[in-house]
Amino acid sequence: MLPRKILETALLALDRPPAARGKPDWSSDGRDWPNRQFSRFIQAGGLTWHVQVAGSGPVLLLLHGTGAATHTWRDFLVPLSAHYTVVAPDLPGHGFTDTPPEAGMTMPGMANGVTALLKALDLAPDFAAGHSAGAAIMLMMCLSGQMSPRVVVSLNGALMPYGGPMSGVLAPIARTIARNPFVPFLFSFRASDPKVVSKLLSNTGSKIDEAGERYYARLARRTGHTGAALSMMGNWDLTGLAADLPRLQPRLVLIVGELDRAIPPADAERLAAICPSARIIRMPGLGHLSHEERPAETIALFDEVFA
């Protein structure tokens, strides 16, 4: 029998507007989307992708993390476009990009999808920067020969598998939860309360602006976006990535928010031990969303490491 709290939530959720179900809608959810003027919808790899392309010069690929979308780069696109051709897609199932079959929500599946998108755009990254899981996708693309940027920047990258004796048990549980269609429905229902989303974001160790919180909340209310984020987490496997890092060709820069509660900042030291050429840059007083907390400071770091 379901716990009373879940039953109460489910009954309340039945009264939610139909617009909260399914994937985000560009005509309503995207009506005032950041940098909308740079948005394109591209067919690649069997999906319709939402991608923002701006500027000219060396190609800079930006990949967001799990549960986010292009809004995470809202303060980046215009300043960076003065010096780079910036390419920022919504990952599969996230934001306004189609959701693929489950195989497309794995790390190799995501890497293949982004590769197909870049091919459709006829663009090859000179530089790449990824936040959280986005950094892992980029490194897999480099290690598999799908792209060859000069520098890869990891912003609080989710690059190390969770340790501990329960790690082998938690992954199957996460996959089981992610496959339950009722779970994203409950998540999206809870996200109708802005305070819930604000608390989830602050639990990462970051305090972002109200506009950023609203975009996260808008996406989280959509069951398609939430379901894709859960599916991505349930299918994530980092066990082989760290072992392959010694053969990474591009320079690796690890930008670390020292108050990150989502990814242990100590992981950067573990990664540097595996990949001695990696450079660590610490951002004191900032959390997992450090790039959204201090975009200008992060952009300045980009200019330094890409020089």
Tell me about this structure.
- The protein has one domain: Alpha/Beta hydrolase fold, catalytic domain (Rossmann fold).
- It has helices at residues 4-13, 77-81, 107-121, 133-143, 167-179, 182-190, 194-202, 210-220, 223-234, 241-244, 267-274, 290-293, 295-306; strands at residues 39-44, 47-54, 59-63, 85-89, 127-131, 151-155, 251-257, 279-283.
- The protein is globular, with a radius of gyration of 19 Å.
- It has an 8-stranded mixed sheet with strand order 1-2-4-3-5-6-7-8, with helices on both faces.
- The protein has 13 helices and 8 strands.
- Helix content is 40%, strand content 15%.
- By secondary structure, the chain is of the alpha/beta class.
Features:
Rossmann fold, disordered N terminus, single chain, 40% helix, alpha/beta, 307 residues, globular, 15% strand
SSE layout and pairings?
Blueprint: H1 4-13, E1 39-44, E2 47-54, E3 59-63, H2 77-81, E4 85-89, H3 107-121, E5 127-131, H4 133-143, E6 151-155, H5 167-179, H6 182-190, H7 194-202, H8 210-220, H9 223-234, H10 241-244, E7 251-257, H11 267-274, E8 279-283, H12 290-293, H13 295-306
Parallel strand pairs: 3-4, 3-5, 5-6, 6-7, 7-8
Antiparallel strand pairs: 1-2, 2-4
